[in-house]
Amino acid sequence: xxxxxxxxxxxxxxxxxxFLAACNTDKEESKxxxxxxxxxxxxxxxxxxxxxxxPTAVTAQGDxxxxxxxxxxxxxxxxxxxxxxxxxxxxxxxxxxLQFFDESLLYINGDYEITxxxxxxxxxxxxxxxxxxxxxxxxxxxxxxxxKADDLLYAYELLGHPDYTGARYSGLIPMVVGMEEYxxxxxxxxxxxxxxxxxxxxxxxxxxxxxxxxxxWAYPAPRHYLxxxxxxxxxxxxxxxxxxIGFGPFKVKKMVPGESVExxxxxxxxxxxxxxxxxxxxxVSPSVAVxxxxxxxIDIASLPADxxxxxKELKNVxxxxxxxxxxxxxxxxxxxxxxxxxxxxxGNPKLENKKLRxxxxxxxxxxxxxxxxxxxxxxxxxxxxxxxxxxxxxxEAKAIEYNPEKAKALLAEAGYKDTNNDGxxxxxxxxxFKLSFASMSGSDVAEPLxxxxxxxxxxxxxxxxxxxxxxxxxxxxxxxxxxxxxAIDIYAGAWGTGSDVDPEGLxxxxxxxxxxxxxxxxxxxxxxxxxxxxxxxxxxxxxVYKEWQALMNEELxxxxxxxxxxxxxxxxxxxxxxIAAGTKEGWDTVAVSSxxxxx
Amino acid sequence: MLKFIFRRTLIxxxxxxxxxxxxxxxxxxxxGDALTGxxxxxxxxxxxxxxxxxxxxxxDPWHIQYGRWIGNVVQGDFGKSSVYQQKVTxxxxxxxxxxxxxxxxxxxxxxxxxxxxxxxxxxxxxSWADKMIVGYNYLSFATPLFVFALIMLFIFGFMLQWxxxxxxxxxxxxxxxxxxxxxxxxxxxxxxxxxxxxxxxSTIQYLRNEIIDTKxxxxxKTARAKGxxxxxxxxxxxxxxxxxxxxxxxxxxxxxxxxxxIFLESIFSYPGLGQLFxxxxxxxxxxxxxxxxxxxxxxxxxxxxxxxxxxxxxxxRIRID
Amino acid sequence: xxxxxxxxxPVTESIQPKTxxxxxxxxxxxxxxxxxxxxxxxxxxxxxxxxxxxxxxLLNLEKITRxxxxxxxxEPSAVHWLGTDYGGRDVFxxxxxGAKNSITIGVVITLISGIIGxxxxxxxGYFGGLVDNVIMRIIDFIIxxxxxxxxxxxxxxxxxxxxxxFIAILSIFLWTGKARLIRSKTLAERExxxxxxxxxxxxxxxxxxMFEVLPNLSSIIxxxxxxxxxxxxxxxxxxxxxxxxxxxxxxxxxxxxxxxSNPEVIENRWWVWLPASLLILVIMLCIxxxxxxxxxxADARQRLT
Lengths: 599, 321, 305
Prior knowledge:
By secondary structure, chain A is an alpha+beta fold.
């Protein structure tokens, strides 16, 4: 079974809201960490490329007033879908609702690795193939039933069920021993999951893989609540849609489907009674988010990047930020996907010259893009592993500089010269050289950004035209990029990396999402090394990925263009709120200093 | 009359059939299916997607898919939304109330504004009131709905903060209480006013013309000559004739209301069918889009039929056409 | 929403029968000349059209659409009369080009749908019977369709979406109203003696339609085209606002107005959205006032002169 990590497409227009979904497994509900990890995280913020360093936590700390209540803004153009269960949800907005009332049994640290700080502890076996999870005693569902080992087994049974139509039967799930047989209906049980007692369960995987520490599924599902229904009925039932239960700090009290949710505090929460009495979540359209913050209509919201400038001016609001598990890039169409073999096949003579790709990278002036178009919320990317993996991102990697002169020299060296004096270079055979550039519509800056890049390439003499003279809508864009439409030479995309650092799912020989179809033996070797048994040794793994980042910056099948901050606006009355991965704060510690929002 | 109703109903059947085929083919032709959309929002395995595609029958020839689809629709099974993982019936059920409420209140408010204004303008032609009304009418005709709605939202929602800026009800209000009703009304107010103020155009103009025309008709002159007081002439003779058709026009308004709800719901973040339509279009939620267009089409077809029948009952001459 | 096709519009003056014969063009001019609003509208509209078309000829499209990242959301100044937008582009330039695009597309759609509607309406009305019946059923069907929804679906479906497909899609739906109008008028004309006379003389049908019936309908056609023009510009800008209009590289008035969905822009960057909104309003009003005057010219009962 080919391994597919937590990797997913990310559209420019969905970037900020979608991001929360990617990290739902890790970011919001995760509390346990140690100070060392925090230190690393801040190191990530010291990127020399930008002056912006956002705090991840609000400055205001303390106990605040008793029994406060806050409004949380879910920034989305559309209603949340209302599949409120970690096994079944698919959209980012649903994940934002889930974070309040349900959580993972295992918390994570700043590197997204599981820790023993959460509602359960874990132990890995000697051979690194199995994990034993032990749930703490005082962890109970909202209806008072204890969270049992059997509930975690139930989640795996749902995920692997032949009738399961969600998208989460992927990653490590199919690698559980006996899961494939169960999924194909050949077996009624999953042989690799062993419930030892009410609170202890051991899950065994087919192979030892360092991704276990970041990609392990630890969201239980309440069997006593859902177990008597068929899987199809569960998805549609009110028990998931309007009256879901979890064991998080807040309980769902009332819901207007798709529009708002009222949460009340869970007095039985395993970390103790939450500070706030209630939280009201409501869907707020992105275009009005800043105004709603200013008016005090909402206390907390993650803001779209294009509203940063106005948000910055707000006096009643503190802005938190952190580097996303994502990057923007420019990809080259270098081959085809062989679906039968499940393999990427290179073969596009037009772009196969590495020097051409390097020249095109040198031509890009990303600094003003980050500073002016994104007002500092994005900054030039240096490698394909974002600094949100402080342990693996190569901080020493030299950014691809902006150097049009050098780019021109490289082009000439590669044989691209302007032979007919039209201001644009011809290819080494002297024929007209023209590239078509595909870019997505969606955000305000989408078009200016695409035109900016085209101007950059024009400046070094490469003729680039926007594919069909316009931007393309998200769905059709990815459909054509994925199919390696010959009309597309280069394209601007973005990837969310998920919390697993392994880039195989995006750049492997057998990865369908390797849209450029670029392959190399060296790449295969490094990627395999990164998930080998040796790679359980952090230092070894860091070395492998450092080498890989250097390789990619040399070969440039994709040019990393921008890293990004995600931005959360918080009203000044909010205390103890932290968005960093592995923070100790949770929704249970968040409090307010006054009855009403600061205006 | 019965024959007309029968014939008029008969025409409806092929109309609805053609509509359903048309919509189905359109939806099939959309780039990407609902499963492509899932690529954007979760961690997925391409093989898994292909497996799901096969399972959902998305790889069958179109007429088989149509047959399956229409068979289910007739039986009341509208399929399942792949984005919401929920029956389309439930999904629409959640929102249809909001849209009906909005449409109804737009209609009512627009008539409440338009009928008095139309009568005033028609009765006192050339007065300053008439001139104001005609001026308002010109403006309402020329102002694009979305510009007007955006400005309303800004002034009353953001600047003055008199009304909420989105949603259909405050979650803290409990169903059945007065507070709940008030909250609903407050959420409804801005989209209703934005829609209604611009929807008065045809009614005002129709009434005004009708009254001007009827004023000089013989039966009115006779009534006047007999000494019937002027106000009675209006209420008894003129309005009765002029107002009846307005009620009948209701059915024709449906297409316009559907179009309007798309703008209003997206601007005021009002969770109804129009907003559902736009979001389903961008997420390629094939089953939802088709059903929404089908329902709107059928609503318009039935509405038009009812209007035709009522009008032909009021004015038998129409039947000949 | 009231996407008003403007086939019926307010009567501003009471009935004053007029019998003397004047040529159509003359009557139209007289009507406009004697209606102060219509005259002002005509002058204003001509001024706008001249500015927009000559202006956009003089402007360098490439220079205007060139992104200037160092000049985002600049306030109006001597260099940028109406400031700049989020891409640092000159709003005044975008406004001219956008107005040119919106107006041109509105006119082209009106003409195409007018020609289709005219042809179909003439044929249906002139021949009557089965032909008429079939055509009318088709028209009835198209008129009923949830227009905005289907257009949005079509726009997402077409493989190549550009200005031409946009015009084609809108034209498919907008000819029916005109066809209906022309048909009913032709039905009436058909019964008149001059048509029968020509028929007995053996004049081919198409000649009767083109040279005898059509001229008698010209006034109605002109009025209808004028009034629908306003509606069509409205539809284009509305679709662009929703994101289903012209591609982004072809700016329209709707593109500029769409910025107003951000309250921040409404409040602090009026120069981006307000001029375009006002321009739409003024153009629509002008066309409407002129249309009213023309309508009176076409309908002897309502003439002012």
